[in-house]
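Try it yourself: sequence plus alpha-D-glucopyranose, in.
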Amino acid sequence: MSDNAVQAFCDRKFGMFIHWGLYALPGGRYKGKTMDCIGEWFQSYFRMPNEEYAKFASKFNPVNFNADEWIRKAADAGIKYIVFTTKHHDGFCMYDTKVSDYNIVKMTPFGRDPLRELAEACRKYNVRLGVYYSHHLDWHEPDGGDPGTELGLNCGSMSWGNDWDFPDRSKKDFSRYFYGKVIPQVTELLTNYGEICELWCDCPMNIKPEFSRALRDLVKKLQPDCMINARIGNGCNDFQGLGDNQLLHSKSTLPIESPGTLNNTWGFKYDDHDWKPAAKVIEQLVSLTEKNANYLLNVGPNALGEFTPETDRIFSEIAEWMHGKEDAIFATRPTPFPQELDFAYCTRKGNQLNFFLRKTPSELKLDGILNRVVRADVEFQQNGETVTLKLPNLSGRTLPLISLEFDGEPRIRQELMPQNGTLLLSATSARIVEGKEARNSEGIEVDEAAIVHEVTNHAKIDRDGTLCDWNNPSDTLEWEISFPEGGNYALSAITQTRWKKQPWSGDRSLTLNWNDQTVCVEELLPETNFPSPYFTKKQSPVGVLHVPAGGRGKLVLQSPEIRSEDAGKINLNSIQISRI
Ligand code: GLC
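Structure, out:
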């Protein structure tokens, strides 16, 4: 993988995922019942035999499909690449393949190859083409991947493999499917459609390393710069991936992408009306951008080949917002601040810092600024390491942009300090000290507090930067903080549910110490899990911190006492400190 390909991946920032297949036809409805899961899992949800599911093909005639229109809408909104479902878990191929007749060209009245038309439109609008390919699961094939039920069921109810048509797992020969379908089809995809920027594999589950490796070798032989996602399995990827709809809480040092939905499904569903407002989608894009991550935003076109009206509306609102801000998003570098700012997302291009304002007070104060600001979009003053910005009335606008130009590459003090009075402390910026019951990496108990950054048998930091599964009260998180001035600061804890997991159900009290004095022991508010099956946050006030004078100190957070066996575990997103 060349450095250029990795950099090009990072520079793209914004992609459009397209989930389109036969499942768009029923749109989640069957015999008077509506699915309560993601729409592209229709066949597994209703355990529909292949013979019956295949009948959708004879009705699939998306006469309004217009690749040019899809890609133009995407490009207008700033999209730099697409990832199209060439074969989802149902095994039906949405491109012209010689390997299986179970494809859109052979089996549908439509008879066209949408991938070819999309590839052409992508070239026209200077958008890169990527392909989603379900390399493990394939419900159409007797030998398709079937991890059984040991790994649970998807969304709690759906089989991963096709155990309704092919119940006898002992007869399944994954290798026959893999070398008979996956390898030749990925060869077609990477040979017949020009340059492919990403191969997007899915649901690796327990796929054996030899298969992930064989697939990787093939990709690297055919198109060395095609970036492979982490769901290929077994570490054969070129970039990392977040979970569906998962965001980051701190900067990523590795190339990473977050796939996100517009409502709660990937494939079209008639009955999912839970659309995200455009402002939220925009915020997610910018929040990921500043943390060095790409956003792969999904659309689920209907069976006529149309984007839903809500999709169109959201995309045109993004396009409107994006106008004039492209330069502050694409090919930018991540925020130089050591923490997320509560009042802005920040990106850098050359000597310029771009602030997308989450709050619009009349004045903003930045601290720890080590070089000179030479120009700004707004009135500013610089005194020592402090820059004060006077803002015009920007209220009511979605993440308005202001830029500051420096006399060189902007240098920011890499200490944790409040910016404009507020500091967000993430788990990744803490020193994690494991307490008495800690085990070292060999599993031997150690008596004294052992400092480990890679947490062992205690709490762990998830790939999004959340502290998860913390249930050992002798562990602590420590942050070294510099306060530019004394004062009273309100403390709050931001916790969140994790995808498909129950919210934290245990004892909800946290203890925070400031320079060895206990400042608060407070109950946290419960998170809510529904209606969204993804991640929900809750901010709980936990007390007031009195800082007598400017200077450094140490804030120590202790996990709650776990009193009962079945208590849930804390998922801590961050601790917020705000000047009162
Ligand atoms: C999950 C689903 C799959 C979907 C994907 C998108 O893995 O199983 O249907 O395509 O998420 O990220």
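One thing you can check immediately is this: The longest strand covers residues 537-547.
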